[in-house]
Design brief:
With 157 residues, the chain is of the alpha+beta class. It has helices at 14-21, 27-30, 124-156, and strands at 2-10, 40-45, 56-61, 66-75, 79-88, 93-105, 108-120. A 7-stranded antiparallel β-sheet has the order 1-7-6-5-4-3-2, with helices on one face. The radius of gyration is 15 Å and the shape is globular. It starts with a strand and ends with a helix. The relative contact order is 0.26.
Length: 157
Amino acid sequence: MKQATCSQHINAAPEQVWVVLSDVTRLPEWAYTEGRFPYPTEGKYGSEQTEGVGTIWIGVSADGQTATQKVTAWEAPNQLSYELQTSENAPMQMSQINHFKLTAQDEGTQIEWIVDWEISGGFWLSRWIANFTTGGAFEEMMSGSLEKLQQLLEDEV
């Protein structure tokens, strides 16, 4: 798997960051919308469970793709991870695990976002091109999203 990493300092307590980060319905508020990836316009829960390991998140993107994610780590307010389960209507399938680590720092929170990813399925040349060009797009999306998260939280505080 390939890996992309991004971090951001946010002038809000880890508990305040956690409230937004762990609520899938708030994802469209801080998702980066200017990049090459389809961005989420709706976040919803896939069952009655809304907290903890096993929670199912469903994201609907601007281009109609639906991604189902399963929470695999939930340690409030320090660590959150979720893994892509399925992606409907996507031109290529991808394995993807998102890890968020929140650390109290300088009267705020240092947030680190790591994405482990790999393109799977499809024609080998298309997969190779996507693997070659996708890495920078992840960093752009992650950086832009964390900047929006920072702005959202600092405006709320």
